[in-house]
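Our preliminary data section would be incomplete without showing what the modeling component actually yields. Below, a chain of 80 amino acids is followed by its predicted structure, encoded as C-alpha cells that our downstream tools consume directly.
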Amino acid sequence: MSLKKPHRATEKATDKQIGGDHYKLTISPLKFILANNLNFVDGNIVKYAVRNKQGESLEQKYNKIIHYAELGKELLKNKK
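Predicted structure:
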C-alpha cells in the first residue's frame, strides 16, 4: 500500500479540457462567460454555439441552443 500523496497538476483548471477538444478556441467559452457575467442559461447558449463536438450534427447543436433559449423564456415567466 502506497502512502504517496496524489499528484497535483501544475496546469490551471481553466487552461485545460477533459474529454475532447471541442472547446479549443482563442477565447474559451468559460472565460468569455465569466468576463461578461452571463447567467447559467446564456452561458450554455454561448457554450453550445461555439463548440464543435465530433459526431454532433448542426441540427443537434441548434436544438440544444433552442432548448436553452426556451428554458430562459420559461424562467422569465416564472419570475413574474
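Helices lie at 29-35, 40-50, 58-79. The mean pLDDT is 83. Preliminary results of this kind motivate Aim 1 of the renewal.
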